[in-house]
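Forum > Structural Biology > Help requests

Title: Can anyone predict the 3D structure of Oxidoreductase?

Hi all, first post here. I have the sequence for Oxidoreductase but no way to get a structure on my laptop. I'd be grateful if someone could post the structure tokens.
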Amino acid sequence: MTWTADSMPDLSDRRLVVTGANSGIGLEATRELARAGATVVMACRSRDRGEAAAGEIHADVGHADLVIESLDLASLESIRTFAAELDGTVDVLVNNAGVMGIPRAETEDGFEKQLGINHLGHFALTAQLSDQLAADGRVVTVSSAMHERGAIDFGDLHSRHSYGPWEAYSQSKLANVLFARELQRRFEAAGTDQRSLAVHPGYADTDLQPRVARAKGSRIQLGMMWAANAVFAQPASMGALPTLYAATAPDVNGGGYYGPGGLLNMRGYPDRQEPSKRAQNPETAKRLWDVSEAETGVDFSL
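Reply #1:
Sure, ran it for you. Structure tokens for Oxidoreductase below:
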């Protein structure tokens, strides 16, 4: 399937919320959504970076309808404030923001940072926006092929006893797929036409990889990351296609998992794929949902 951003329908009557919209996949997705006529709420941790990104999009697209809002997914208070101040219907929520492979740190609320931002923050955000989601609305959660290496360690969810940066990242990305699939099950049980989908960008040239090296203070690793991106990665604009497909294509299936369909599922145009067996375990998904409610203090009932 050769599906590109030009394949998107007219979005002039749609409003989307994109977390982490100021860089990488989020920036490219926002650019193309705006080009298709959508109103895009750019939910960014840094308002300054959000405004700079919006300026770049305006220079490229011209007619972009962008709204910049502050959102720090490492803070449940920030999430509550964002959700309370966001009026009106949300047609699509794109849970995109994330961190990867960083040294162990904790969020404002004491969560291991990768799980806290990548999963728990988005879980809380989705819960608090669920009443505003359109009757035919979608929730698109950006995971990673690294979810295949992940396991949910319910005995040490926040890696307080043992921490590996990539183990924690893989756990958070597995949590993304489990959450997306469980949300779809709950949409169906509630009898709604809403859809929840998970996607992954493949190996895309974004700042996420070099940020890992900068967090470790390693110039050698930083150079290697930049070189690998230059040689092996596909452009961020291609990495954004699965997100755009899941958010806008009429033929996507709720509960589906979409990523690049080319070489090793790391490059190419979007295609439906199968997540790992662990990601398809409904008992794990339900348990994670219950734990996530308890951890974040939100009641996510439909």
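DSSP finds ten helices and ten strands in the chain. The longest helix spans residues 165-190.
Shout if anything looks off.
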